[in-house]
Specification:
It is a single chain. This protein has one domain (3-164): TolA/TonB C-terminal domain, CATH 3.30.2420.10. It is 39% helix and 21% strand. The protein contains six helices and five strands. It has helices at 3-30, 36-39, 71-82, 87-92, 123-132, 161-164, and strands at 58-59, 96-104, 110-117, 140-142, 145-157. Strands 1, 2, 3, 4 and 5 form a five-stranded mixed sheet that branches. A hairpin with a 5-residue loop joins strand 2 (96-104) and strand 3 (110-117). Helix 1 (3-30) packs across helix 3 (71-82). The chain is elongated and about 50 Å long.
């Protein structure tokens, strides 16, 4: 890959990371929302768990949300270094938002990653790949206890002006 193409790819990855970072902030800010439409994505009412009483509950709302190591700056760096706009999506001009859900376990590992709504062109698979390859997170807490926490993350794919021509 020549230097210009490599630089262009880094710039596009950086733009994508910034978009994802913004979306992550939005998701975290919505965690305390009582908006039923937000919780409908998994048919689990806000404030409840998906496995009542089993000891392995997955909480949708917690007192302290899971955090990526290094906070938002760490997340941004991870995305910048790992997320790639799929070639097929780029060739077909596919843009949009992939909605993904995953669980941050008590040990910080990520599991149960699924696409809630995809856009195709390899973007769905790329979103899953990046989430599944992430290092352990700092787990969420509820009432002082470390708990498994469901995260919902919109991953936006947008081509730059140069890519659209």
């Amino acid at each position: 890959m020549n230097t210009c193409a490599s630089k262009s790819k880094r710039i596009n990855n950086f733009k994508l990371a910034i978009i994802l970072l913004s979306m992550m902030v939005f998701v975290i800010s919505c965690k305390s929302s009582k908006d039923p439409a937000f919780s409908k994505t998994m048919d689990i009412p806000m404030g409840e768990t998906s496995a009542q009483g089993s000891g392995d509950e997955v909480f949708d709302v917690v007192d302290e949300v899971p955090e990526f190591p290094g906070g938002m700056e760490g997340w941004n760096g991870f995305l910048r270094n790992n997320l790639t706009y799929p070639t097929l999506a780029r060739q077909k001009g596919i843009e949009g938002t992939v909605y993904i859900t995953f669980v941050v376990n008590k040990d910080g590992s990520v599991s149960d990653a699924n696409i809630l709504r995809g856009i195709g062109g390899g973007c769905d698979e790329e979103s899953l790949r990046v989430i599944q390859s992430s290092p352990n997170w700092i787990p969420g807490k509820n009432k002082g206890e470390i708990v498994r926490t469901r995260m919902r993350l919109p991953v936006q794919y947008a081509l730059g002006k140069k890519d659209k021509s």
